[in-house]
What does this fold into?
Amino acid sequence: MKDFVVLIDDDKDVRVFMKEILKDEIDLKFESFESVKSFMCSEIPPTIKIYLLLDIYMTNENGLEEIKNILNSYHNIEITMFSSSEDYSSLIESFKNGAVGYILKTFDTKEMKSSIDILRNGGAFLSPKMAKKLIQGFTRKKINNSSKKLTEKEFELLELLSKGNSYQEISEIIGISINGVRARVKRIYRKLHVNNKASAIQYYFNLR
It folds into this structure.
């Protein structure tokens, strides 16, 4: 049986272009719809394996809000978002709702065919730009979680370090000994899971 790839997108030009890209794939059946509603009313059996490419911002529908409805009706379907939106929150919400991938519409023909092959072989595809956003998002979360462990005085000391103050200068500004400054710096390193001043300062700038 041929693999079933479905595109839901209210842009007719996109649907026509995708059909053109995949027309030579003899072991694949491609269908496209202008809305989730028209897809749900189609004659495609709900039991068949479907690889769905779903747009987010359509005229009368929001793809993110429709993910769960689709999954409830089609139990053998994998949804990959297909959007021009590079918004990090859309990426995260799509995964939370049950999507398994995210492809930007800024694709070229070769990339699209490659992503379809990955989906059909049991993998998930994430456009490189969105993969980078995902990594950056987890990094920011890690930084924020670590920063919550710092006390107000430790934040003050970290700020002074970021401004290039020496241990001696920091000692005079906050009124503790140089050894006391060193001890606090070590505590900051432990809390932020870093082992040098440069890394600690980078954390500070990421928090600003």
In short: The longest helix spans residues 128-147. The beta strands are 3-8, 28-33, 50-54, 77-83, 101-104. The first strand starts at residue 3 and ends at 8.
